[in-house]
Amino acid sequence: MDKLLIVWSSGEVEVAKKMVLLYSSVILPRGYWDRAHLMIWGPSVKLLAENKELQEMLAKVRETGVELSCCVVCSDDYGVTEQLEAMGVEATHTGELMTEALKTDWKVVTF
């Protein structure tokens, strides 16, 4: 099974729109990967909580079956945990999944 972990930490809108969320929205429907997980970490947590356009794009990503999580420490620091969970993003200790992905057969890409 081909598995991809996308780590999104950039706080830049254009990186989110033109790379992270655009790519994430097509990877499962086009069959590029069998399983995909978008991990939202650091400044991207705040950016997503503040930007309605990115929230709409994330909803489309979620609809394709891409799994979503965010760093609970980051989301708590920014005060946006409940807001992200309402979008279908699981707030968790992302270091565990990151470590598992790096030690096993996941491919990992970071933005």
From TrEMBL:
This is DsrE family protein. Gene3D superfamilies: DsrEFH-like. It holds the Pfam family DsrE. It comes from the Bacteria.
